[in-house]
User: Which sequence fits this backbone?
């Protein structure tokens, strides 16, 4: 062959050379272009490595400035590496949303803790009440002399009833309705109990009841009382406690009256009369939720000397009130 072929590889570029000058010229141009391409490629590779190193440095240092610089260099040389956009640090931007969210979570946790504490306290109180109730029932069943046939409800009911004062034995003998001794006017409330004496020594409770009944015929005056206690201690009820009696002119609408019989002229009650009076006063006091100050003499409202002995002997009246209190408590 007239032409000799020679292959020369430099920087990855193949060059074909021949005898004629045209081929040499072309080969020279190709070599020149190959040299420039190799130089550009080496520069590009070197810039890429520098950018990659800059990227690695910025990633390790977590410097936003270096990261932006690396991004510009990569875009410049077409070698930007895709990476996810980092979320901004809300704490550094001044956004109040994360702080308020944390406060809400903490407040919710505090409320939950308070609720749990309240539930635990309620459970503890309930357990204490159950324990005390069970102990009371146990003591009631085993430490008291009770009949096996009685139940718990009956025992408790008996205890409650045992603390109440029973009304004294009495004879219920109501007067016939009339304008002079039993008007039939409603007694809406009871604020006081008045103690009287009959002002007729030696007369019995039955005789004084008949006197009140006869006023409907004689019409000489208006007088009556809810109760009359005889000198032997007998008790007669003349008027229901739901109706007014003619006993204290200015207080008939809110009071109950008790007439007491006596034997001596001084007006002192017999012991039987006194005992029945104390029992009756204690019963009425408890029944209508009154106090010692609500037990009055007829003298305390209007100044009438009734009951005369307990007006003239103030100490005897104070002893009567003390005996009523002791009876109620004992």
Assistant:
């Amino acid at each position: 062959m007239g032409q000799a072929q020679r292959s020369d590889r430099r920087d990855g570029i193949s060059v074909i050379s021949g005898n004629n000058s045209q081929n040499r010229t072309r080969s020279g141009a190709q070599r020149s272009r190959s040299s420039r391409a190799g130089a550009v490629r080496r520069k590009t590779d070197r810039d890429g490595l520098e950018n990659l190193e800059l990227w690695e440095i910025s990633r390790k240092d977590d410097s936003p400035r270096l990261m932006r610089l690396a991004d510009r260099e990569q875009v410049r040389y077409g070698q930007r590496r895709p990476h996810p956009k980092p979320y901004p640090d809300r704490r550094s931007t001044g956004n109040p949303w994360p702080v308020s969210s944390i406060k809400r979570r903490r407040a919710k946790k505090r409320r939950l803790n308070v609720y749990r504490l309240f539930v635990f306290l309620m459970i503890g109180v309930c357990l204490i009440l159950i324990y005390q109730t069970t102990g009371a029932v146990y003591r009631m069943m085993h430490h008291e002399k009770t009949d096996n046939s009685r139940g718990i409800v009956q025992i408790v009911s008996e205890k409650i009833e045992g603390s109440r004062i029973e009304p004294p034995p009495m004879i219920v003998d109501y007067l016939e309705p009339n304008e002079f001794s039993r008007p039939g006017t409603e007694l809406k409330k009871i604020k006081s109990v008045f103690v009287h004496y009959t002002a007729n020594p030696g007369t019995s409770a039955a005789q004084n009841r008949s006197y009140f009944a006869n006023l409907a015929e004689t019409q000489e005056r208006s007088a009556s009382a809810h109760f009359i206690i005889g000198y032997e201690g007998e008790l007669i009820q003349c008027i229901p406690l739901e109706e007014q009696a003619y006993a204290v002119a200015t207080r008939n609408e809110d009071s109950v009256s008790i007439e007491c019989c006596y034997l001596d002229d001084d007006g002192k009650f017999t012991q039987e009369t006194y005992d029945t009076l104390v029992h009756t006063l204690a019963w009425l006091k408890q029944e209508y939720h009154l106090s010692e100050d609500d037990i009055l003499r007829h003298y305390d409202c209007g100044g009438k000397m009734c009951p005369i002995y307990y007006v003239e002997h103030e100490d005897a009246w104070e002893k009567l009130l003390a005996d009523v209190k002791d009876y109620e408590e004992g």
